[in-house]
Amino acid sequence: MTRAPLDHPFPTPPVSATLLDVAPGISWLRMALPFALDHINLWLLQDDDNGTAIVDTGVDDPATRAAWRTVLEGRRVSRLICTHFHPDHMGLAGWLAAEHGVTLTATLGEWSFGRMLSLETGEDYADNQVEHYRRAGLGPDLLEGVRARVGSYRGRVSPLPTAISTIKHGSRLTIGGRTWRVIIGRGHAPEHACLWCEELGVLISGDQILPRISPIVGVWPQQPDDDPLGEFLASLENLKVLPADTLVLPSHGLPFRGLHERADELLRHHAERLDRLRAAPGPATALELSRALFRRELDAQQMGFAVGETLSHANHLVARGEWRRETRDDGVWLFGAAEGYGQR
Predict the structure, then answer these.
(1) Which of 38, 53, 196, 330 is deepest in the core (most CB within 10 A)?
(2) What DSSP element (H or E) covers 87?
(3) CA 282 to CA 275: how far, in whole Å?
């Protein structure tokens, strides 16, 4: 992917459990993650009456809890906001809400999906996970890994709150005397909340737009027929209505200016990936097609993400009418061009 010439006004991130001011009333906190993507950016907003509003939480592990205790010592938490349900963003929402007596603020879609994943223990849930990836073309060895990872979300999050203060697209939050408008993005997560402050020219973007990588846009077992890529591309276009010089505060990487350039870069990136699929021989399974998009060796967990990404691009071509999805006698999906499908 060609890199846009982004401006990074804060090239050095804060060290663990310390804060760096990036705009009036906004501090940057970085936490470690136990993943290949090894960090998350969290944001603390100065609120009225010496309160602190928190945006996103990190995962639930002892090191992250200890870092929060250090950072929040002597502070009053006035509000807790989570952009979306992923464990690096909502993992400590339940713990922080209980510790500080605040209600989680989130979209209904994100909280509901997180609650579902954290409470789901039924065999039917596990069976659906395995069946989804079997339909995508995975064989018995990889499917064993899928079943072994069922329930992994629960291990990354403290019990999520049983109630929330709901936000939706266009909601306005007053924090520290400033208005933050909620902009919903889709594709990476069901109802991802970005926060825009016109007065400061600041967008807290979560994972919806990142400076160096594209967030995962995948088709998952709960919604196998969806077109999340179409939703993601539309969300990128929607972000381009904000001023070009917006200071973007992302969840990974460095804060940046160059919102329009980065959105266009991501649009081109996914257009190129769609072209790779169009050029791949077919009809083919999602697993076979994934090799056109991911040419490096992948471990079992990475393969699951790769297949999800491949399905999102394949489903988008189906939604556009360019491709068809048919089902073999064994239940496995085959994707190929709508015109002349099955004649190669």
Answers:
(1) 53
(2) helix 87-90
(3) 14
Q: Do 67 and 17 contact (CB within 8 A), yes or no?
A: yes
Determine the pLDDT at residue 3.
Answer: 63
- Per-residue pLDDT band at 1 (split at 50, 70, 90): low
Closest CA to 75 of 39, 105, 102, 40: 102
| Structural domains for the chain | 19-281 (3.60.15.10)
Global model pTM greater than 0.70: yes
pLDDT digits over 108-133, tens only? 999 999 999 999 989 999 999 999 99
Neighbours of 129 (CB within 10 A): 21
* Residue 202, token pair as written in the block: 């600041």
95 three-state secondary structure: helix
Q: How confident is the model at residue 298 (pLDDT cuts 50, 70, 90)?
A: confident
Q: Other C-beta atoms within 10 Å of 333: how many?
A: 22
What order of strands is seen across the sheet that includes strand 51-55? 19-23, 26-32, 39-46, 51-55, 76-81, 104-107, 164-167
Q: How many CB atoms lie within 10 A of CB 161?
A: 23
Interval 166-191 mean pLDDT:
98
How do residues 3-60 score in pLDDT, each as one tens digit? 667 999 999 999 989 999 999 999 999 999 998 899 999 999 999 999 999 999 999 9
Which position has the token pair 């990872």? Answer: 149
